[in-house]
Every structure is written in structure tokens, then in C-alpha cells.
Specification:
This protein has 327 residues and is α+β, with helices and mostly antiparallel strands. The chain folds into four domains: 162 residues, Alpha-Beta Complex (Conserved hypothetical protein from pyrococcus furiosus pfu- 392566-001, ParB domain); 53 residues; 55 residues, no CATH class; 31 residues. Helices cover 51% and strands 7% of the residues. The strands form two sheets. A four-stranded mixed beta sheet has the order 1-4-2-3, sandwiched between helices. The radius of gyration is 34 Å and the shape is elongated.
């Protein structure tokens, strides 16, 4: 796979230059929007020594130096000094963009945006940051260009960065695959989980640790359901009962059905499951205390609150009836 380091940061040209007949050269596939500026080319005719132009060895197409080539032609020369670029046409275009960003008549904003569109089409696997570096644009601008260019087309799951390494666009997808594989194969090794999910061994280790602790493998804090330590009945009884005068021996807690549900991956890793857990989790009501919540309600709205609570009770009773019939 071609990476940016190989075509946009390093210039794979020969160690020196050689003189080539102008008739053997093909005009550039230039990132510029207009034709050659003849006034600029004529000004170059007065320069005694110009640097060699850059040419793709495979096609003999000029990559960088059309104004120098035009100046040599206007001066009546039949040959010109050339340095060769070894790569394909897509790599040659990226090199042409790079060459015109930092020397000579630099590309304007519109030309750089047009070049970025071509690079997105040629290298959809490249990251926005890599394309931004190649085209001389901001990452935000490239992201907008990518959205307009690809539209509703399928997006790649991974992109290649400037360092040549492929990374997932959405890391949560790989983590969810790793968690699913772990549920189906609880005895799988970290390398087996990583290979099946397309993630690193370190990510597989982190996912397994999170699953063992009953946490979300993706690490979405806003959606995370914390395990509860006491049942709703136990908490309610503690709120109602007076505090004991003397220490009492600890009683082994009964099995908490909400905690059991909260640790179930099939509920934790689905939107419907997480919504159900949030509806069942009444810790906010029990932790603050009924008296404190009741005090926040104006007296003239107590009847409305009572009606709302009864409505919720009726809704849960109806759901319980459906649950009992489902067996």
C-alpha cells in the first residue's frame, strides 16, 4: 500500500539530473486551474541557471516545472535538465501538488481544494490529516471536502495516517466486535480476539478487562450503567427504618436483579437494553430521599404529582402483565 511518507514527504528522484530532449516530454497534469503564465515564463528566460524540472520516469510527464519548460522553449532550446520521479500517476499528482505549495508560483486556495478532491478520490484510505498535509489545507477543510465528495457512498472503516499506519475511523466498532467475540468465545486468547475484531492486542486486553468489570467496552461514560449494590427494596427499607442504636452484624445481601441485568452484555451493548436499564434504575429517587423530593414540589401540585406517580405505576403494571404472559 502506498503511504503518504512514500509519495508526499519524500521525493523519490534520482541522485542527479540529466539533459532530455524537450520533444520527449509530456505536458504536466498540473494542479493549477489556468494555463501557463507566459509573462512569468518570459521572466524566467532572463535567469541564467534554473533548477531541473521534475518528470515522471514512467510517463515522461512533467510534474513540476512547466514555466521553466516554457521558458526554455521560448528561448529556442531543444533540451532541458530533468530529475526523475519514480512512481505511478496518482503519486506523481500528489508530488506535483507538494512541489507547488512551497516554491515558484504557489497554488491558491481554490487550486489546493481541487487538488484535495482528487487526492480524496485517489486515496480514500488516507486520513484527513494526511490529505491536509499533502494539499496544504486544514484538516477541517479536508473533512468537509470528503463529505461533499463521497456523499452517501460507503465509507472505509480505516484510514492511513501520515505515518503510514492504518487506524479505524470509529474505534468503537472494533471494540464492540471484540466484546461480541469475547461473549461467544470466553476462553479466546487476546491475540485471537484481536485478530477476529481487527483491533490491537492492547485494545483486546482493555475490552476484556472492561467486560470482566461489568463496564462498557467502548468506554462511553454518558451511557455507562453502574452496578448497584442494594436492591430497591433494601434501600427503601433503610430510608424508612430508624438508625440502630448499636452496631449490628452485617447481613449478606440478597442477589440484586437489577445488578444482574446491568452486567448482562446483551443489555449493556444495545440501545434498547440500555434504555430499559435506565428506566429500571430508580437510585436517583432513593438516594435523595422521598422527603427531600417531596419538599421540592409546591403544595398546589401535590395532587398532580400523585396522579403522575400512579400513572407510572399503572404503566409498569401493564408492562409486568405483558412480561408475565411472555413467560
Amino acid at each position: 500500500m502506498t503511504d503518504l511518507a512514500g509519495s508526499a514527504q519524500r521525493m523519490p528522484v534520482g541522485p542527479g539530473s540529466e539533459r532530455v530532449a524537450i520533444a520527449a516530454l509530456v505536458p504536466a497534469d498540473s494542479p493549477r486551474s489556468g494555463n501557463v503564465d507566459l509573462a512569468h515564463a518570459r521572466s524566467l528566460m532572463e535567469v541564467r541557471e534554473l533548477p531541473p524540472i521534475l518528470v515522471c520516469r514512467r510517463t515522461m510527464r512533467v510534474i513540476d516545472g512547466m514555466h521553466r519548460l516554457t521558458a526554455a522553449t521560448l528561448a529556442g532550446r531543444t533540451d532541458i535538465d530533468v530529475r526523475y520521479f519514480d512512481g505511478d500517476e496518482k503519486e506523481a499528482f500528489v508530488q506535483a501538488v507538494q512541489a507547488n505549495l512551497h516554491q515558484g508560483r504557489r497554488l491558491n486556495q481554490q487550486e489546493r481544494a481541487a487538488a484535495a478532491r482528487r487526492i480524496v478520490a485517489a486515496y480514500p484510505q488516507w486520513s484527513n490529516r494526511a490529505i491536509a498535509h499533502a494539499a496544504g489545507l486544514s484538516t477541517k477543510t479536508v473533512a468537509a471536502i470528503r463529505r461533499r465528495s463521497t456523499g452517501d457512498e460507503a465509507q472505509l472503516n480505516t484510514r492511513v495516517g501520515r505515518d503510514g499506519r492504518a487506524r479505524p475511523v470509529d474505534p468503537s466498532v472494533g471494540r464492540e466486535r471484540a466484546a461480541a467475540h469475547l461473549r461467544e468465545h470466553p476462553d479466546a486468547s487476546l491475540r485471537q480476539i484481536a485478530a477476529a475484531a481487527g483491533v490491537s492486542v492492547g485494545t483486546a486486553r482493555d475490552v476484556r478487562t472492561r467486560v470482566e468489570r461489568g463496564e462498557d467496552p467502548v468506554g462511553r461514560r454518558a451511557e455507562r450503567v453502574q452496578p448497584v449494590t442494594l436492591t430497591a427494596v433494601e434501600r427503601n427499607e433503610r430510608l424508612r427504618a430508624p438508625a440502630p442504636r448499636h452496631p449490628v452484624a452485617a447481613v449478606a445481601p440478597v442477589k440484586d436483579p437489577l445488578a444482574v441485568l446491568a452486567r448482562d452484555p446483551s443489555l449493556r451493548f444495545s440501545e434498547a437494553g440500555r434504555q430499559l436499564l435506565r428506566l429500571l434504575d430508580n437510585r436517583a429517587l432513593l438516594d435523595t430521599g422521598g422527603a427531600a423530593l417531596l419538599a421540592s414540589v409546591p403544595p398546589h401540585n401535590r395532587a398532580a404529582l400523585t396522579a403522575a406517580v400512579h400513572q407510572h405505576i399503572d404503566t409498569w403494571l401493564a408492562f409486568l402483565s405483558v412480561l408475565d404472559r411472555a413467560g
